[in-house]
Amino acid sequence: MSGLMGSPDKFLPSEWKHANNVHFRSSEAQRSLSQRLTAECQRLIEESDKSTKHTQQDAQKKLEQRIQDIKFWRQELDQKFEEMVQEIETLIIFKSRVERALESCSEPFQVTLQCLTERQKRVAIDLVHDEVEEELLKEKEVIEGVMVLLQRTLEQINEQIRLIRSVKYYLEKDLQDKFQAEHIDDFCALLTNASTNLNRGNSDFSSAGTAVTPEEWESLCISNISKAEKEKNNSLSLRALVDSLLEQTAADMRRQYEATGRAFELRIEETKSAKTQLENQLNELLGEIANQEKNLESLCVAVVEKETPLKVAQTRLSSRGQRPNVELCHDPAQIRLLEEVKELTNHIGRLTEALKLSEMEVKALARRQLSLEEEIQVKTNSLYIDEVTCHQLRQPVVIHNF
């Protein structure tokens, strides 16, 4: 056993030195490598710290810049949103004005129609297509035109309100998105390396934020603002048009209403004048009838008065016709009696003829009296329609500014 376990070989001093030197060099090389690695790691740590700090600072600046951009566009959008809200409220006020204007046309229109209907109750020659009727027809046409125009304007206002509400919807949606985005970015900007609510997951963020480019994002904001500005300008133009339209239509209705009123006044004066003339004619005619009746009475008396002398003359002639023999002489008395009978008969004939003519004239005057009285009644009826009925219908109507 001891033979097998013989003593180990002994090395020479040179070998021992060499072995030591090898160990020294290997240790020195390993230590040098370790030092270089440590230096490299320290440099890497410093570089990564610097890069991380720079990157984080740059990301922080980008976040802050992004927040400023969002705030800027949110302010712009919010301003336009408020303008849209205000414009909608203003348009609703204009809509109410147009609706009230449309409602206020109803009474004048009904009054005009009633006046036209009432004036159809005129009779005889007074049922004439006069200036009043022409003005009433114009008034009807003007009010109908105004009502159609106001209805069309109301539809335009409703459409403009719809368009602005649509723009307001997209502005509000964009504002909500930006508010949420700003809230998220504010949260991100407040995060630090010491924050406790950090995401410790290993989620893949490579596709985050690639749906819309910043240019597209800004373009969408500009587009929403441009649409809002366009609709606001359209609304301003519409409101100016509505203002002008309401003023013009009220002026047109008032002008035509006044023209119809003047036509009524003129027609009433003409009718009154005609009625007065007819009444004067009637009074004169009644006087003439009275005179003619007196004349008729005088003729009757005259005829009666001539009949007695005629009878006397005829009795004388009859009595003298009984004279005897030669006494039956055609003497001057006989001649005069014959002439007297002839004259009296002629007078009675002429008086009787005059009496017939007078009776005929009395009848003609009576017919003319009836005709005048009927015509005066026609004028009275027309005056009542124009001066009383139509006046009472039109008096409460006032055309105010819309």
From TrEMBL:
Residues 268-302 form a coiled coil. InterPro entries: Tektin-like, Tektins. The keyword Cytoplasm applies. It is found in: Cytoplasm, Cytoskeleton, Cilium axoneme; Cytoplasm, Cytoskeleton, Flagellum axoneme. Microtubule inner protein (MIP) part of the dynein-decorated doublet microtubules (DMTs) in cilia and flagellar axoneme. Forms filamentous polymers in the walls of ciliary and flagellar microtubules. Microtubule inner protein component of sperm flagellar doublet microtubules. This is Tektin.
